[in-house]
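Reopening: structure tokens for the C2E complex, inputs below.
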Amino acid sequence: MNEVWVIDDDPFAAKLTQRQFAACLPDSLVSAHTDPLASSQRLAKDGGHNIDLVVLDLRMPAMDGITFVRHLAAASYRGKLIFCSGQSDQMLSAAQQIAENQGLYVLGSLPKPASLEAVKVLLKREQSMTPPPTFTVSRDDIVRALNRGEFVNHYQPKVALSDRRFHSVEVLLRWVKGTKTISPEAFIPVAEQEGLIESLTHGVIDRAFADLAGWSRQGFSPQLSINLSTAGLNDLNLPEQLLGYCERAGIDPEKITLELTESKVIDPASRGLDILSRLRLQGFNLSIDDFGTGYSSLAQLRQIPFNELKIDGSFVAGVSERSPLQAIVNSSVRLATELDMTIVAEGVESKADWDYVAGAGCHLAQGFYIAKPMPGQAIPVWADLWREKSRG
Ligand code: C2E
Ligand code: CA
Ligand code: CA
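Re-run output (same inputs, fresh job):
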């Protein structure tokens, strides 16, 4: 049986939280622990292998939650973690970040006392998150997968917040290995380091253009967004190559958006600036991805001719309840509006997220509330259903 530990030095609070989790997880054994010191010693002994979830308070005089997190990591705890505390949002975010930095799998945070509804929402979110990759990928693995054609494209729709119209799809790469589907987070960084990212990107584009042609025969012609790795921005011929692809496939570059991750700084002295400027001159749209997670946001916005801004999902999911996230979303919208950019909210997971970002002035929405990434042949089916749902 799965065990859940609720760790809170206040016996009443511990009992209450225990009861909420027991109600939501009838198949688990939920226990309350009021002595964090004793709990951490038990963990050190057996590594917590039988524990599926730890629900942790932050402010405990005998041992605070941050210290407890260190003990969890030291014991190689592999289960999930939820913070449940009356501390500020910022404090909860910091605790979450500290735990993630130590390789722990954090589901999220709950205010204290936690309502049954909040516990349910958080536990449901689990299904939408992928745990950290548990295996390492080598250069040979990627070369073999390329030769065997194991990389496939999935597509996630983006829709207009004003009238719900289906607007575009983002290509998200998947590695299908037997019955397993491997997330890009496990292999993209390796491909970047090993000089294989350009081969992957060429495959992505080939398949996407073929799928675009298929959809257009069925009466759909969404815009297409492609993730470009800044590590692949060395080849000065990239703009001509991409234009060549478009010409052969009969696709207008204005239908294509290239997304570049903000956290990877583009050195203005590098070739990246040259390449991106010429791509924009040829009509491709340039999007600054994961906006808010990087360091050089303002400088890059001035130097690089981006015309779209994607607010990172970590600021969007749950935005309606958390004022620090609202501040980030609102200031990103203000900035992008002044720069006349299209604003995409990524990670829209609920109706409340949708309503918030629509009200804040974002143009497009992408996220599980609208659709999860799906294989190319599913797109026309989804688009029909979406249209019906939006009418009715
Ligand atoms: P990204 O570009 O920020 O893509 C959005 C990620 O958020 C996707 O993860 C998507 O499945 C996920 N997502 C979408 N909506 C929601 C939501 O409502 N809630 C949550 N929790 N997540 C949501 P995915 O597909 O695992 O991709 C991860 C990252 O891998 C991408 O982040 C992108 O940086 C990279 N990647 C994916 N495909 C490619 C590619 O073809 N080339 C390059 N260079 N990078 C790629
Ligand atoms: Ca992206
Ligand atoms: Ca993102």
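Residues 3-128 form a domain with the Rossmann fold fold (CATH 3.40.50.2300). The first strand starts at residue 2 and ends at 7. Marking as resolved unless the reporter disagrees.
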